[in-house]
Prior knowledge:
The complex is a heterodimer of chains A (276) and B (322). Chain A is mainly alpha-helical and 276 residues long. Chain A has a single domain (8-29, 58-268), classed as MetI-like fold, CATH 1.10.3720.10. Chain A contains 10 helices and no strands. In chain A, helix 2 packs across helix 3 and helix 3 (63-99) runs parallel beside helix 6. Chain A is elongated and about 75 Å long. Residues 272-276 of chain A have low confidence and may be disordered. With 322 residues, chain B is an all-alpha fold. Chain B has 2 domains: 2-93, no CATH class; 95-321, MetI-like (MetI-like fold), CATH 1.10.3720. Chain B is built from 14 helices and 2 strands; from the N terminus they run ααααββαααααααααα. Chain B has helices at residues 2-32, 38-43, 52-61, 68-80, 94-129, 134-148, 151-166, 182-216, 219-226, 231-261, 263-268, 274-283, 287-315, 317-321, and strands spanning 86-87, 92-93. In chain B, strand 1 and strand 2 form a beta hairpin. Chain B starts with a helix and ends with a helix. The chains are: A mainly alpha (276), B mainly alpha (322). At the A-B interface, helix 4, helix 5, helix 8, helix 9 and helix 10 of A face helix 1, helix 6, helix 7, helix 10 and helix 11 of B. Chain B: The chain crosses the membrane at residues 12-34, 108-129, 141-166, 186-205, 243-269, 289-312.
Amino acid sequence: MTALRRSPAALAGSAVLAVLAGVAVLASFGLLPYDPIAQNPPARFQAPSGAHLFGTDQFGRDVFSRVAAGVGNSALIAVVAVAFATLIGTLGGLVSGFYRGWADGAIGGVTNVLFAFPPLLLALSLAAVLDRNWFTIAVAIAIVYVPIFIRVTRGPVLSLREIEYVKAAVATGQSRWQIMLRHVLPNITSIIVVQVALSLSWAVLTEASLSFLGLGTPPPAPSLGSMIFEARSLVFVAPWTLIAPGAVVVLLVVGLNLLGDGLRDTLDPRNRGRRS
Amino acid sequence: MRAVVRNRVVRRVAGTLGTLFGVAVFVFVMLRAIPGDQITAGLGTEAAALTPAQRAALEHYYGLDQPLVTQFFSWLGNMFTGNFGYSARNQQSVLDLTVQSLPVTFELAVLSIVLALLIGVPLGMVSASKAGAPRDAVGQAVSLAGLSIPAFLLATTLLSISAASFGFNPNGQGFATLLEDPLLNLQQMVLPALVLGFGIAAPILRTTRAAVLEVRSHDFVRTARAKGVPERRLQVRHVLGNALVPIVTMTGLQFGYLLGGAVVVEQIFSVPGIGRQVLLGIQQKEYAVVQSTVLVIALAFVLVNLLTDVLYRIIDPRVRAS
Lengths: 276, 322
């Protein structure tokens, strides 16, 4: 919280995210002006107006309601994906850096293999082989980001385990897991928090790219990427069908990036004391 | 000293080979995890009409009745002898497809990187020349935009605007390779390269800015200035020269990403690159194409990273000496 107050970027980012989160929460409770998937052919291609804030699409669906529900879907997938990646990656990094030896070798090997794929290609291939629903998309994205969290935590853990108070904890006979969770983990939380914020923005972009390519959440569930895909051919008939989801996806990612950058500048010990 | 360096290189190469083996296992297992089997996937609804005997014959023909380990090593052995499998839809071997698509992606990646460097490095230097000033804010805004605007959105918008308002849609006609028709080829590459270059310019800009700021704080820069080195020469030779290592590393990394990450842009602009080959393979359920192409991309990605690593050791005298 203090970190947020010290960084105008992080503050601006959180403000944008708060608004979008509010809309997404309303959408998840069904508090939208229209049903996002209900078709109404007579009302197709209506320009933005009081009745339809962002106009309607080729099936007469309300674009505002679809965008709002789409933000909710994208955010859900991104949050679940990053949560998985954080949990597994942090655990992997802790074990790898603290136990060293064969565990480190094995985890390092897996990390190297996953790092050998361009991230979007890996997410794409995984999404293609998994049975497609929002959860498997989240799992596919999570697998891509696990190695990043492993690498980000392993380094600091390696240096922490040489520090006196950790050695003292070892000497008092605490178990390795106790030491890792009670003495090492709290000291790397700021690094993890920064990584979470930055990863969320990538996860949103990845999810949007997948659904743009037709490998994301299956239709008719609204998703920002697939809305933009459908709007490609409608740009001149109904530009609002492209502009609304496009602007919202950019806003969402800008918000996450501002928050991530702000947190990195204030929280990351490597940046502390100097402006980067 | 030399032996140490050589040892390190040998270890790095051995590690890379191990990683590549792991990649092959991963790709193989991933594609075996597909719900249903390849025969059903390949034939679609027609698969239901197969008699058990026909199905068994097909399984035997494709080697699917062999143990998984045998299948894996036979695939890997085939890859080594240049047999990447066959694409029934294209009536071409996957090797032929790859020989056509890889250079296209490579060209696109090179053009994008050149554009990204032309945007990112000067803007990064300008940004760093007065941190916190309005010009820095401009640089930061450009990099934020590059990081936040999805490539597919920028590509879709650019394509619509250029086609409708300027009648410029070279990608509407069949793709021409650089050798067939260089002029048309470059026209077809310019928009995709701009989209990708803009996105990659952001991390390059940020890296340049951070590296320049870091280098400038060193004493040798002050000494050079006190010695009367002209400002322009100081900025280029002393500051940028020393900031080159992180910039090269970031550029190499981004180049690697482009080899598979250009898939969305290739798809939108109908550029027949290797990313699009994977996507088409997925859409047409031709898993032999997907399996071998993904492995080729991973191999290229790993090689680019290895080269970047070597290059960085060559540029940085500190790494060379230690």
